[in-house]
C-alpha cells in the first residue's frame, strides 16, 4: 500500500500545482543527474545495498510506477509460464523466485468450507464503499497539513505566525517575497485556494486509497482454483530464474514423457509465452 499512497500523493501534489514529489524523492534520478542532495544520495545507496538482501526493494515496495506496471501487467494478454509444457508438480521451482512471485497450486482440500469463503467475500465487498468514504474523509481532513508543502501556504502561515521574521535578513524565503510585488493579502488568498484544492483532492486521494485497500482485501477472499505453479501476473518481473529450475524439457510434446524429476537445472532455458 505504501507505493499506492505515494502514487496518489504524487498525483495530488502535481494536480494542485505544488510540486512533483516523485522527481524530488526518487532515490536514483538525482545521482544520475549529479544534482541529488546528500540525504537522497544516502537513501539511493541504501536501497542499492539493501538490494543485496531483498530483491529490488525500491521497485517492489516503494516505486509508484511499479504500481502502474503491476496493474497493467495483470491485464496484459500474454504471460510468462514457468514450464515449457505441462507442469508435473515436482515443486522444484517453488522457492526459486527471489520476488516471491510464484503462485502455488490451490490445495486439493480447502480447510475452509465454501460457505465461509462466500460470507467473507460478501463482507469485504460490502466494506469497499466504507473504505472509500473513510479514506476520503481522513485525507480530506488532513488537507491543511498536506497543503503545507506548497510554497504559498508555507510562506503565508510563516509570515502570519512569526511576524518577527519579516525583519530577519537571513530568511531568504521571506525576503524574496517582500522584494516582489505581491502583497501579503494576495498571498493569503492564494494559499486559501491551494488549501481548497487539497481539501477536494483529499477526497479523491483518500477514496482512491480506500478503494485499492478494499479491492486488495476482497481479492484475498477470492479462492481461485489453480492446478499448476504459475508466476503472479502483476508481481512477476519476467526474469526467467524459475525456468531454470523446471525439469520439463522444452521440446516436450507429449506431457509426462522425457521428464526427469531429479534434475534441477534446465540449461536450455525454456521460454514460452501463454
Ligand atoms: S520469472 Fe522471475 S520474477 Fe517471474 S516468477 Fe519466475 S523467478 Fe519470479
Ligand atoms: S519446476 Fe516446472 S514442473 Fe516442477 S512444479 Fe515448477 S513449473 Fe511445475
What can you see in these coordinates?
By secondary structure, the chain is mainly alpha-helical. It has three domains: 75 residues, no CATH class; 71 residues, no CATH class; 116 residues, no CATH class. It is 53% helix and 1% strand. The chain has eleven helices and two strands. Strands 1-2 form a two-stranded antiparallel sheet. The chain is elongated. The C terminus is likely disordered. The protein binds iron/sulfur cluster (2 copies). The site of one iron/sulfur cluster (SF4) has 14 residues, from loops. One iron/sulfur cluster binds next to loops.
Describe what is shown at a glance:
With 274 residues, the chain is mainly α. The protein is 53% helix and 1% strand. It contains eleven helices and two strands; from the N terminus they run ααααααβαααααβ.
**SS field, number of helical segments:** 11
| Overall geometry | elongated
User: How far do the termini sit from each other?
Assistant: 29 Å
Helix and strand run: HHHHHHEHHHHHE
The rounded Rg comes to 26 Å
Mean pLDDT: 84
Please give the largest β-sheet: 2 strands, antiparallel
Beta percentage is: under 5%
Can you give the helix content as a percent range?
40-55%
* Bound molecule kinds, no repeats: iron/sulfur cluster
What is the number of independent domains?
3
SS-derived structural category: mainly alpha
Strand order of the largest sheet: 1-2
β-strand number: 2
Contiguous uncertain segments of 5+ residues: 257-274
